[in-house]
Write a structure and sequence with these properties.
heterodimer, A: alpha/beta, Rossmann fold, 7-stranded mixed β-sheet, about 30% helix, B: mainly alpha, 3-stranded antiparallel β-sheet
């Protein structure tokens, strides 16, 4: 009997029947910063990939691709899943940080609780674009320095200044390959979101 | 070469998705999110003439609950196409969705606390 589910998928493809609420957190950052690693470390399922197709012509897209009248482009989205309780599931979406994926950003940010920005301290200047996009789409975020082996340690406060972060924006370190460390980074984000939500209520 | 039933056909990408949706780029229903949870409803699809992709989608969803993004990933179809197909299946009463975050029923502060508690238990 053919299975409608991809071969190689684990048996726990489906959510528990009791799950009622799905939440979404974005994991963003520049190319090769460790987004896919982070999502893979946290996910209870083999991370999945899907694509968003954009059909609307955009002059900026044409400029970049040089493909003349190209009106369709696709963006791969990697995501993972984490069941947090009988009724609650959290999805983590690894999001490409390029300005030209505007439609994808709209879809991704809609209803997202917040975003974790992964940063390579050696290439932190490549993170300005993605932080700018989060601010543009009004997505609250925390910043996690993904430590690579042999990376030179920058003092966090120096990075905070270099990244021009607000004093209240959480800035933590994490190792995207390590589950406990990655979980801590997500918790720092959620605590910050709680703080913001309580201020909104006040 | 693969026996994977979910593998794409040889038809060129980029064109095919909008053949599946009969040219429609937007679903008939608003509010379908990447993490809307899809549930197949008990019912007989035989009165409806379903295209092969909708039939696959229904078969997938009859196995259990999945998000829109997971449905798209397992079927190897773009999210936009899956949203259109899901809208149609919702119109025929074969599937339903749970809204991603029912804000009216669940205050944001409570949701955040549940997320934090869940992460702390990992």
């Amino acid at each position: 009997m053919d299975s409608p589910v991809s071969s190689g998928a684990t048996t726990d493809v489906y959510l528990a029947d009791s799950v009622k609420v799905a939440a979404k957190i974005l994991v963003v950052g520049h190319f090769a910063v460790g987004k896919t690693t982070f999502v893979g470390t946290m996910s209870e399922i083999r991370p999945l990939s899907t694509e968003e197709t954009m059909t609307q012509a955009g002059a900026h897209v044409d400029d970049l691709t040089g493909a003349g009248r190209k009106t369709t482009t696709t963006v791969a989205l990697d995501f993972g899943r984490l069941t947090l309780s009988d009724r609650l599931v959290l999805y983590l979406f690894g999001t490409p940080g390029q300005q030209r994926f505007a439609q994808v950003w709209k879809d991704m940010t809609l209803g997202a609780l917040g975003a974790l920005v992964l940063i390579d301290p050696q290439r932190f200047d490549q993170s300005f674009d993605v932080i700018g996009l989060l601010e543009e789409y009004d997505v609250p975020y925390a910043v996690a320095i993904n430590r690579f082996d042999g990376a030179v340690e920058h003092p966090l406060e120096k990075l905070r200044t270099a990244l021009d972060l607000l004093p209240e924006t959480p800035l933590v370190t994490c190792d995207a390959r390590d589950r406990a460390s990655s979980t801590e980074a997500l918790m720092a984000l959620v605590r910050y979101l709680q703080l913001r939500a309580s201020k909104e209520l006040a | 070469m693969t026996n994977d039933p979910t593998a794409k056909s040889d038809a060129p990408d980029l064109v095919r998705p909008y053949v599946i949706t009969r040219g429609r780029g937007h679903p008939t229903r608003e509010g379908l999110d990447l993490v809307s949870l899809v549930i197949a409803l008990p019912g007989d699809e035989s009165p409806h003439i379903l295209d092969p992709e909708s039939t696959r989608l229904l078969a997938l969803c009859r196995g259990g609950i999945l998000s829109v993004a997971e449905v798209a990933a397992h079927l190897k179809l773009p999210i936009g196409v899956v949203k259109v197909l899901l809208s149609d299946l919702m119109d025929t009463g074969l599937v339903a969705t749970r809204r991603p975050i029912p804000t009216a029923e669940l205050p944001k502060t409570q949701l955040l606390q549940e997320v934090l508690d869940g992460l702390a238990r990992l």
